C-alpha cells in the first residue's frame, strides 16, 4: 500500500491520475488496484469524464459565438484532442480552451466572444499592455457565469521570441472538422510541433510530465502513417521549431520509451545544442519535468525549475525587454498590488 499511496500522490501532482486510470483500465488491470487506492482512480475518471463533457459544451458555445467569423477557428491543445477524438483526449484534464485565429480577425473574434459572455480577467494595466503589445495572445477571457477560460491566440509564440513560426503556415494546413462546422485543428505534424513548442517555451512546468504524455500519445497515433516522420522533421525545419522537436523527442523517449526511429534523431542533429549545453539541459529537464511532488525531488530540483523558468523567458524576449519586465514583475507589481484598496 505504501507504493500505491506514493503513486496516487505523484500522479495527482502531475495531473495524470485519470490518464493512468484509463491506461490501467485499457490493459484490464483495474481490478488489480487495491480497494483503498481504487476510489482515487475512480474519482479521477469521474472528473475526467465531467471535464470532457464540459469541453464539448464549451466548443458548442464557441462554435455558435464565432459562427460569423469568415475563417475557421483553430482549436489547440487539449480541447483539440477532444474535438478530433484523439487518444490524447483520454484521461486528459483541462485548465482552459486555447483558440487560434488570424491576427487580422483577432479583434472580431474577441468582440464576438465578449458578446457571448466571455470577458477579460482582471489584470493590472501593466499586464494588459504587456499582453497587447508583446504576447501571441490577448488577455485571458473568462465566462461571466460558467467561469471557463479561453486563451485567444494569433500565433503560437510571441512576436519577440527568438523563433518565429509563421502562423499563416499553421492556419493554411489546419484541418476543418466536419462534425464541428467552423472549427478546425492543426494538422498532425503541426499539432505535435505546437505541443513541443508550448512545453519547451513555458517557464512553469507544473504539468510538464502530463504535456509530455500528450506528445507520447500524439506521436504513437501519428506514426502509423509511413510518411509521418519525414513530414514532421521537414515541417519542424520549415517552422523554425527543430530545436523544440529535438528536445521533445529526446525527453519523450527518456521518460516513456516512445518508439522514435534513429533516422529521425539523426535528421535533427543539426538543430541539437552543443554537448555541454545538452548536459545542462538534461540536468534541468530530467528534474523539471518530474511530478511536482517531494518524493520526485532531489537537492538540485529547485534550481532546475528556476533554470527552466529563466530559459523560457530568455527565449521569449530579448534582454533589453526581458530585464525591465522581470524587474517590474519582481518589484513594481507587488508594490502596486500592496497599495490597492481591499474589500472589507
Blueprint (SSEs and pairs):
Blueprint: H1 2-13, H2 17-26, H3 35-65, E1 73-76, H4 77-83, E2 97-100, H5 106-115, E3 118-120, H6 125-134, E4 141-143, E5 149-153, H7 167-172, E6 175-176, E7 183-185, H8 188-200, H9 208-222, H10 228-238, H11 242-256, H12 262-267, H13 275-288, H14 301-316, H15 319-339
Parallel strand pairs: 1-7, 2-5
Antiparallel strand pairs: 1-2, 3-4, 4-5, 6-7
Key features?
globular; 344 residues; 15 helices; Beta Polymerase, domain 2; 7 strands
Structure explained in plain terms:
The chain is of the alpha/beta class. It has one domain (2-339): Beta Polymerase, domain 2 (2-Layer Sandwich). It is 57% helix and 7% strand. The chain contains 15 helices and seven strands. A seven-stranded mixed beta sheet has the order 3-4-5-2-1-7-6. A hairpin with a 5-residue loop joins strand 4 and strand 5. Helix 8 (188-200) runs antiparallel to helix 9, helix 8 packs across helix 10 and helix 10 crosses helix 11 (242-256). The longest helix has 31 residues, at 35-65. The protein is globular and about 50 Å long. The mean pLDDT is 93.
CATH topology: Beta Polymerase, domain 2
Class based on secondary structure composition and strand pairing: alpha/beta
Identify low-pLDDT runs: none
CATH class: Alpha Beta
Alpha carbon gyration radius: 21 Å
Largest β sheet strand count, sense and barrel closure: 7 strands, mixed
* DSSP helical segment count: 15
Name the average pLDDT.
Answer: 93
Order of helices and strands: HHHEHEHEHEEHEEHHHHHHHH
Q: How far do the termini sit from each other?
A: 47 Å
Strand order of the largest sheet: 3-4-5-2-1-7-6
Q: What is the domain total for the residues?
A: 1
CATH architecture call: 2-Layer Sandwich
